[in-house]
UniProtKB/TrEMBL annotation:
Organism lineage string: Eukaryota, Metazoa, Echinodermata, Eleutherozoa, Echinozoa
Identification of the protein by name: Vacht
Biased composition (Basic and acidic residues): 511-520
Residue ranges crossing the lipid bilayer per the database entry: 14-37, 114-132, 174-197, 203-224, 245-266, 286-308, 315-334, 340-366, 378-401, 407-427
Keywords recorded for this protein, A-Z: Glycoprotein, Membrane, Neurotransmitter transport, Transmembrane, Transmembrane helix, Transport
Compartment(s): Membrane
Segments forming domain Major facilitator superfamily (MFS) profile: 15-432
GO biological process, one term: chemical synaptic transmission
This protein's encoding gene: Vacht
Amino acid sequence: AKTRITNPVTQKRFILIIVCIALLLDNMLYMVIVPIIPDFLRSIGAWDTVTPTPIPGTNTSLYSNITNSSQDDVDVEYKNENVAIGILFASKAIIQLFVNPFSGTLIDKIGYDIPMMIGLVVMFIATTVFAFGKSYGVLFFARSLQGVGSAFADTAGLAMIADRFTSEHERSRALGIALAFISFGCLVAPPFGGVLYEFAGKVVPFVILAFISLSDGFMLLFVVKPYSERRWQMPRGTPIYKLIIDPYIAVAAGALSMSNVALAFLEPTMALWMEDTMHAVSWQTGIIWLPAFFPHVIGVIITVKLAARAPHYQWLMAAIGMAIIGLSTFIVPFCKTFGVLIVPLCGICFGIALVDTALLPILGYLVDVRHNPVYGSIYAIADISYSLAYAIGPILAGQIVQGVGFLNLNIIIGVFTLAYVPLLIFLRRVYDMTPQSHEDTILLTEEPATGLYQSVKDEYKRSQKDGINSSYKQYDAFGMDKLGNGRLDGPTNVEKSDSSDNMNGFAGSRTDNKAKSKNP
């Protein structure tokens, strides 16, 4: 078994499975509480004030689909319920926003496996608290604790994929698979939780998720233990604040956040609007997002296939996805039947798939060519982008609908989403960048290279760290005769103690790389 796990190809597959399960777990836990917690809090009397008001033809409570069905003429309004539940739902993303900068920096310093394990353990504890918690305060604590676990597990998982899958095609494919699991977790969790809560009680769905978390943790311990020494070989990562001010990273991160605004704002308001406009019943409001899983997966597959053939056009795929999201958002409020509404919602999820699948690999590539190839902080930024949308959505969406209406909410989201599309043009030349054009960054790290530089590192072994600079300049490891920098032009002094074998090895590397640079 040990030989099998230490095989690089098999080990990468196990890593991908572990990360996908962790992302599935996190997103199922994120959405499984939607059909459970509001009804559970009412059943335990969490809200003191109950005000019966006559129904003026339409319901006014955000969670009115969970009221007592025997009250045909009266809608029971629980004072401050919507605000309290909105804050409960958003607390996970809010905590995640604050923890992500710390988790990303920690991952850059100590590697990916330990933070991943921390995240799984914390999510196991949070899930257990959800299962047995019986008050609003305890459930709020569990939701916030989940945010801490997500900040570690999600960031470490995406960074681990970027680190282990070094070629752009492999990386895009692996990240696409991970995104499919994220989508599946979000969309299958509400019916999963609702059915089990109805027939087996509140504890069962959370116990199942806790068991999945525990199993994933044991898998991680079994797979990465022989590789724990890798963290001492990692170069020093670029600080997260420097990554955020990189204009290319800022544009990509902003797009990730903007593309999820529609989903973050529509999810908490869709059920009420469906009841008002099409008199939808509970099962319809519960499964309305489920069909959108299939176009999301199709979008992931299309983007991965096109990225393999034309990686330089990934920015265009993201722009098309953003435009589809904006246009679909305009259509939503004009849908009058359940079947018609599925179409724009599928369009939104299809567009999100295009944006996410195109931009997550771009973030990894930008770190490879413009910074140090350590991925904790960059995927912490990606996680922050997602969390920003889901932190404000559940809190503000209901208030905006009450203030300006559901139609105007969709118009606002659509306008801002379409307005962001032109900014993605700035990413059109990302894949024209090469590590050669950023060698100054490489030289200053004084650390062995990873990521895209792995193939160069495998060609030769540097005997002393002090000899890195001279090796780059004398033997031209990246196939560059001149960089346009005077201090690197001309010969350099190399100690006579260098062996002839090393000289031949470096010279061969130079010849091979020059040939590759002429024939990209």
